[in-house]
Give the backbone structure.
Amino acid sequence: MIKQEQSSTADAIFLEPVVRASCEGVPVYAYGFTHILGESPTLVETASLQDGNTARPVKVHPKKSWEISANLMGATPPRMPRTTANDYLPLEAIHLIDGDPQTCWCSRSQSQADVEPVWIRLDLAREQSITRIVLRKRPPGATRNVVGSMPLDTGAVEVGMALPELLTIRLSCDGRLWETVYEGPSGAADAREFVCDVPTQRAKQIWIIGRNLPRVENWLFSFSISSVEVYDAEERNIALASYGVGVTVSSTQHSMGQTIEEHRDLWPIHTDLGLKFVRVGYHDDPVNWHWVEKTRGELAVDAEADAAISYLTERGIDIMLSLGFGNRLYTQDDPTRKLPQLWEWYYENPAPPTTPEALEAWGRYVRYMAEHFRDRVRYFEIWNEWNIPAYWGAAPNVAHYLAIARVTIPILREVCPDAKIVLGSIAGFTHGISSWSVDELAAQEENSFMLRAINALARDVDVIGWHPFYQTNPESANRRNYIADVRCLRDYCHALGFTGELMATEWNYAASYPAPTPPNWWGDFECSEIAKAKYVAQITLTHIGLGVASFFCETWSSYYPLDLTLLRRSFAADPISPQQPQAAYYVMRNLATALEGLAPVDVAYSLQTQRQDITSLVMQRDGEIVVALWTPGLAQDDCVGEPCELTLAGSYRQVFGYDPMNGTEQPLTCVQEEGSIRLPHVRVMDYPILLRFVR
């Protein structure tokens, strides 16, 4: 039972949406600066799911999470809400005028070098004579640990060292009339600074505009420097906060940590989506060890993060909490951070616990978290993506991971016996397992981190998770063979004594506008916003049709160059870039309602169609059989579909077709035959349609 004061705290922090407008009679709800239509919009032009059927499709009202009894749909939010005590925004504009050469500002990342201009504006307290303007890069700092932390992208520079290729500098005394005093190249590649000499001139405002941005860190293109200096006739730098100067910028790179305001405004959309699972702690959250224990022996969970978990559990959502990561207080000889300009995780990752002392401290963290959350958290995950350096904090080591798991599992079983334990989700999947020979499987059992961990822990954990797709080409073998591979992996796990759940705890498809400049770790596949929504529907149905919980990554995010979000990344703004729903948002919400209570089932059926590769999965719930059909491969914005006839064993009163792109349901014409029902002239699209057979 959740304490009342926790509930009151959550309700005070995360406000319920209000109606800000209506469109054609449908309310539009405001979650901060994000506006969400109360019903599904019409996203594609689909006259009918059955040729010759003139019945009018009707919108199906989407349910909230607490109105849905069960589904296997989840998401990973981009970090958790937090109080100011655990907020970390190292790249704010104030660093341009704080006089500290080691601090810096960075604009929000862009997917290409010239998407939109980026600017800095300084406002002096009073009009003064100026002679020189200097843009200064941050001086080089400590050597980076490239094993266990995120390295620079190819061709990228460090944060604070990124001058645009082209600069425009304008001066004004009234904020209306501007004189351009420089326009041209910055000499950014080699110079530590850019100097603009100005014939002694009066000014109150300085406006600096950058174009053709350099590649920065691992987030593509930004404008990032340490300071803007403005010198008067006496050679004083008057561009300092101590002189009353104000600074405004076009945008700020808050990175994947985001801002307190965004977390508060957007946290409630998980319930609007109708999700039943939310996974937290997998990247850099206040529930991670390095946040919970910032001083040796003192453990505490951030109050706002605590309330965020209560908010969701009170509204019918199960929490998966990833326990991680390293803590430099115990896992490094020198706990001092060397790169304070960046977020600790994952630019300066602490090493994982491997020594007896560190493992003992890890166990105390696990016990503390289990005791604190045992009445609210249903799933505890042991680390995230421990098979890659960027999340392990060192070169991955199966033996070290197993040692951590064997410390963790007994504590969780003792403290919260009703909770389920998740084997730390791996980056990737055992793609191809369904085609491996006996010898190939044996070789994989020696080399695959995932299979080695499953072999060791299959009987000790309740859930096995993986991250199968990030922008994977739908024509690839990994996509084409995925259903067979999942079934094969399930059989493999069962043979080892595993009896629990399978979960795809992260996956993503992105529709980036414009497409990010390669090279990128996710490859070069691109798609439109509508195609993304169709792939989201395909992967969701693939998993749920297999009885696998499915987590889209991430619910919202406007700072990462890959489109990791269900909301639109638009023009940058400061301090918050407003985000509006993508098509994929509404499709996810439609599916959460349509897939309520469904589980896989074996029922005899057949398809008559000229296309032999139609994907089909069959599910059931009380009194109904639901068949999902779609054509695999590349999706298009406009699709005429493939004609198909479906015959299903059994006797049924009615059949309905559900279109998740538009959120509509339509009665279909069928023929009841002896022992089966025949559904002619179905139009199968390049996204899943749901055929609902009602007994």
User: Anything to note?
Assistant: The chain has 16 helices and 31 strands. The first strand starts at residue 18 and ends at 23. Residues 1-6 have pLDDT under 50 and may be disordered.
